[in-house]
Amino acid sequence: MMAAEAQAERKAEKRRTGFVAVLGQTNVGKSTFLNAAIGQKLLITSSKPQTTRNRIRCVLTTDDAQIVFVDTPGMHKPGDALSKHILREAKRGLRGMDLLVYMVEPWGEVSKLDRLVFDDWKDFEVPVILLVNKTDSVKANEVAETLIAYEKTDLFAELIPVSAMRHQGISDVIETISKYLPLGMTLFPDEQKSDQTEDFLIGELIREKVFRLTHREVPYSTAVRLKWLNERDDGIVEIKAEIVVERESQKGILIGKGGKMIKKIGSLARADIEKLLGHRVFLETIVKVQANWTHDSDQIQQLTQSNR
Fold this sequence. Notes:
Layout: H1 3-14, E1 16-24, H2 30-38, E2 56-61, E3 65-71, H3 81-92, E4 99-104, H4 112-119, E5 128-132, H5 140-151, E6 158-161, H6 170-180, H7 198-213, E7 223-231, E8 237-245, H8 248-255, H9 260-277, E9 281-289, H10 297-303
Helix pairs in contact: 7-9
């Protein structure tokens, strides 16, 4: 073994390494927090609830630690088949974790839904850290009241106020998480930041724009799958993506009058995809109707996984 390789292996063995699930109700800012922690936009964000559908691993590697964050869909009361799938993904995120991070907003009290979630944690053996997010948008006493209320549950090893949007408190969270992780070999190469394929991440960036630009049932009835991705000799990446909806009326909304909506979705998505890939991108988006896919478990599985 070369000296450099031996040194790298010894360094890896000294790192604190482990899996950390990030949980909380929908729209509390989990994805915004993880993007800030990783230092790159890997996860889509939206002011609408239930944006995240899958467990996504984001990898943060420092000189001292490798933290494998598992972003989970938001906790909520299940409704249709897609909603139940999202909740199952969130609960599956608890398996094999070394640490849990639970995120709330400065509500001033423990919410009813959080109390229901905590009832399932009675026999949970790994440490749990509480993050009170969005501290920049409320009064200081509301943050303090929230910290006191959640501390009284006796579930949390640490309680930390943060503002993920403003990147406040993020370094404190990373330092705190690291000290709870075991020493061991790193699990991913230092440069890797996600366990998902480029296809999946690109599809999510397109879906984010649908969430941002459309309303009512349209974003929740939308899935994205890549049909084609090819890097040309001149370095431009050609992508063809299919946006799937349930009804013809939704297709009409996504295309828009004179194609304005689909052009705007493509333009905004292309800018983020170029940042992700580090290449210029030619993006073609088409809209397809796949009737009632959010009510069929097989179609949900097919359309929410990374494939093409």
